[in-house]
């Protein structure tokens, strides 16, 4: 992947759903030093918390890239955005996109990029040659975040754990498997755009053999229980060959994301199925903790839920935002 140039201007369009700007929010939260500001259109109802500014203002302040920081249904590039993208290229900015539609499939953008010496980065689409997985034992330690559903905090938990371990001077690397994580880390592979036969092999390459005391913290995707994304989750699980798994969950969610009348699995079932399937490539794989998004309830209810889960399962249960991840890291440092 070509080098992503910072600082970024985060383009969030006219987004109305906070989850729809996950990519922009990820960069703002985890790489604030790379984010100059946000570009919003009329009707936008959400924010990254970055300073609002125009394209011209951002260029004058030293912006190097325009980031398409949102995700719409289908991941398409709206024709209404093309004038903004062309203006960005004319101003000398690279464009970074995590959408399914490719910037490089649009001739007018390719021509504008070439004319202005800019680069179009389609970070969701892997360019490296991939291979099938082998499942052979490899040195090093690996942790994978898994979930009861999509959008339950797997990336946040992975990033928080990586930082916590690094703060403890433990060798650790974040391995990004989605477009938001790639924007934060600067590299990685968007596993949902990998051909199914090559998913496990792609993750083996992403988190290869390492020092015996080094932790790769691998960002999980989807859920084994989600009809749309279970295939991606399984390939990732096998390729990770994880020693430790952390189950991520959203408290209060009544149905799986984007599917009506499909309740989330229990934590007990989620643990059992993930451990069973993870042991295909690592017989010692084990769930060590629960990371739960408790934003739907107040602090007292969040603490009560976490205590109940800990009593039931005999492992740490924390909200990474409210409580931090130190107790999970303790399990890796033991």
Overview of this structure, please?
The mean pLDDT is 95. This protein has 2 domains: 8-122, NAD(P)-binding Rossmann-like Domain (Rossmann fold), CATH 3.40.50; 141-332, P-loop containing nucleotide triphosphate hydrolases (Rossmann fold), CATH 3.40.50. The protein is 32% helix and 16% strand. The chain contains 11 helices and 11 strands. The strands form 2 sheets. It has a 6-stranded parallel β-sheet, sandwiched between helices. The chain has a 5-stranded parallel β-sheet with strand order 2-1-3-4-5, with helices on both faces. With 334 residues, it is an alpha/beta fold. Strand 9, helix 9 (267-278) and strand 10 (286-293) form a beta-alpha-beta unit.
So what's the CATH class of the largest domain?
Alpha Beta
Strand proportion, as a percent range, falls in: 15-25%
Tally of structural domains: 2
Rough shape?
globular
> Radius of gyration in whole Å, from Cα?
20 Å
The H/E string reads EHEHEHEHEEHEHHEHEHEHEH
| CATH architectural type of the largest domain | 3-Layer(aba) Sandwich
Sheet having the most strands: 6 strands, parallel
Total strand segments = 11
Q: Overall mean pLDDT score? A: 95
Structural class: alpha/beta
CATH superfamily of the largest domain: P-loop containing nucleotide triphosphate hydrolases
CATH fold-level name of the largest domain = Rossmann fold
What ranges have pLDDT less than 50 throughout 5 or more consecutive residues?
A: none
Distance between the termini: 36 Å
- Separate helix tally: 11
Largest sheet: spatial strand order = 7-8-6-9-10-11
Relative helix content = 25-40%
